[in-house]
TrEMBL record, chain A:
This is 28S ribosomal protein S24, mitochondrial. It comes from the Eukaryota. Keywords: Mitochondrion, Ribonucleoprotein, Ribosomal protein, Transit peptide. Belongs to the universal ribosomal protein uS3 family. GO terms for cellular component: ribosome. The gene is LOC101853765. Signal peptide: none annotated. The keyword Translocase does not apply. InterPro entries: Ribosomal_uS3m (IPR026146). The lineage of its organism: Eukaryota, Metazoa, Spiralia, Lophotrochozoa, Mollusca.
TrEMBL record, chain B:
It holds the Pfam family MRP-S28. InterPro entries: Ribosomal_mS35_mit (IPR019349), Ribosomal_mS35_mt (IPR039848). This is 28S ribosomal protein S35, mitochondrial. Residues 190-258 form the Small ribosomal subunit protein mS35 mitochondrial conserved domain. PANTHER family: MITOCHONDRIAL 28S RIBOSOMAL PROTEIN S28, SMALL RIBOSOMAL SUBUNIT PROTEIN MS35. Keywords: Ribonucleoprotein, Ribosomal protein. It comes from Aplysia californica.
């Protein structure tokens, strides 16, 4: 930290030049309170979280399991990029299709050419026949796009309260 | 009639003094009038009935909201204790909390703020639904599978009880791999690799062809296990590669039986190992024995001479066929081919002692 008065060895007049030499610290902030996948705590701890959301990514495979089960994740196997992109697409599609009634993340299991989607559906605002329709709709369209049978093995919950694990 | 009208007018007057009601009546004047018109058509009488809002409780007809069907109780509550589990869980499936009759919990709870300090139960537990389970592979399931598959099975052929029997009757072992993975396609280019494995001793070869075979196959032959492995991935299909390695084996076998003209030009330095018969050692040995024979004849001593030597030492091959010489030959070849160790050196010592008829005290 030095300023122009030290450089010029006399009292410098107050000017914009002087201010520019005040030596503000410009290092990037560490942002220790912002982490990927770790939700921020609210003031009165009112934000509900599911188990999946409550466990940070650092505890992956210790306290919670994977959301994508496939062989491309294994060492030396192929189709890594394709599988990852398809999983992303499936998640986006399911999120939009089951809008406002998805009570959990989508687990994507791949066995041979079969893709099994597992998620929880909140029956609060849904009728059984709507669920049946959307299930068939999801299976049919994804099967068409992904060139392999897609099976939806969903389970229902009565309200969103049932999946709340903690409040932060 | 007049009395009724008067009563109504007093009613109106009574309510008009309430300003709020008056304003309310004005606001909804038009609608009220319309309703009254419709009403009065059905009514008999001279005057219409003016109904003041809020005076009488109005009956509004409400459609009863359709009752939402309650979800049925979970299946495990109505399960018999002696049920057939294979009927409940016939195939591989995601964990269904309602169909699993045992209590199970999964998850990690750090403190009492999480899930009231209790490990999450099976209802709506995604952690239980994530991993593959083995509820479709219980002993009862396996027994059913075996019963179903039994009619497709045949008895194990006789004479192939042990590994050694199998190797003897089927000396060539072909190794191929299939790859199972999660993708829309079955194809995997790693599956094209094919190899065959056999023991060199199972092939009918003489010394020359065996030596030539080993030289031709190079590092495909493992001298420690006596195994030859041909592997190929040059063709796009597994069957093509398998045919190719079989062709390689056939070609190398018949090639190694051929003796080309240039093979006879093999010199001492080209030899794969030490052969006593073509080395200088044999000539030296013969000349040494001849010299000793000559000396023995000049000064015959009963116990010092080489008694095993024939009277005529002119025939070199006859000398080399003698037992003592053969033993020496084996000892020297071992010493060169296997290297120096206690065993070969002792053999060599014994052979030399016997060959030269050295006494034990002189030999030490």
């Amino acid at each position: 930290m030095w300023n122009i008065s030290q450089v010029l060895n006399r009292a410098a007049p107050l000017s914009s030049l002087n201010v520019a030499f005040r030596g503000l610290s410009t290092t990037a902030c560490l942002a220790k309170n912002k982490k990927s996948g770790v939700p921020k705590v609210t003031r009165f701890r009112t934000k509900p979280l599911t188990y999946e959301e409550a466990i940070p990514p650092s505890e992956m495979n210790v306290r919670k399991g994977w959301l994508s089960w496939n062989t491309s994740n294994l060492h030396g196997e192929k189709r890594i990029a394709e599988t990852t992109f398809e999983d992303l697409f499936i998640r986006k599609f399911v999120f939009g299709t089951w809008h406002n009634s998805l009570a959990s993340e989508v687990v994507i299991k791949r066995r041979h050419n079969m893709i099994t989607l597992v998620f929880l559906v909140n029956m609060d605002r849904m009728l059984a026949r709507q669920v049946y329709f959307l299930q068939g709709y999801t299976e049919e369209l994804l099967t068409h796009w992904l060139k392999g049978p897609v099976k939806v093995e969903l389970q229902t919950v009565n309200s969103r309260e049932d999946v709340i694990f903690k409040k932060i | 009639m007049a009395a009724l009208s008067r009563k109504r007018l007093t009613d109106i007057h009574k309510h008009l003094i309430n300003g709020r009601t008056a304003a309310f009546a004005r606001l909804f004047h038009s609608t009220r009038l319309n309703q009254q018109n419709e009403h009065s058509e059905q009514q008999e009488g001279e005057f219409r009935v003016f109904e003041i809002e809020g005076l009488k409780p109005v009956k509004t007809e409400r459609f009863a909201r359709r009752q939402k069907k309650k979800p049925p109780p979970p299946r495990f509550r109505s399960m018999a204790t002696d049920q057939d589990w294979t009927d409940v869980w016939p195939t591989a499936s995601t964990f269904k909390w309602s169909a699993v009759p045992f209590p199970v919990r999964q998850g990690f709870v750090e403190n009492s703020s999480e899930n009231e300090g209790v490990v999450p139960a099976k209802y709506a537990n995604l952690e239980l639904m994530k991993p593959p389970n083995f509820l479709h592979l219980t002993p009862a399931h396996v027994k059913k599978h075996c019963d179903a598959l039994k009619k497709f099975c045949t008895a194990w052929p006789e004479g192939l009880e042990t590994e050694e029997d199998c190797r003897h009757h089927f000396p060539v072992e072909s190794v191929t791999s299939d790859y199972v993975f999660a993708a829309p396609s079955l194809r995997d280019d790693r599956a094209r690799v094919a190899s065959i494995k056999l023991n060199l001793s199972d092939l009918e070869l003489d010394y020359h062809s065996r030596d030539k075979f080993i030289r031709l196959v190079g590092d495909r032959y493992n001298p420690d296990t006596d195994e030859v492995i041909f592997e190929s991935d040059r063709c796009p299909l597994k069957s093509q590669n398998l045919e190719y390695v079989n062709f390689l084996l056939t070609a190398v076998y018949f090639e190694s039986w051929k003796r080309e003209g240039w093979e006879d030009q093999k010199e001492l330095s080209d030899m794969e190992s030490y052969f006593w018969d073509i080395n200088a050692s044999r000539k030296n040995m013969v000349s040494l024995l001849r010299t000793i024979k000559e000396a023995d004849e000049k000064s015959p001593e009963a116990d010092k001479g080489l008694g095993y030597l024939p009277s005529d030492v002119a025939n070199e091959d006859a000398i080399c066929q003698l037992e003592e010489v053969q033993q020496y030959k084996v000892a020297v070849e071992e010493l060169f081919n296997e290297g120096e160790n206690i065993e070969t050196l002792n053999n060599y010592k014994a052979a030399v002692t016997k060959l030269l008829n050295l006494k034990s005290d002189a030999a030490v």
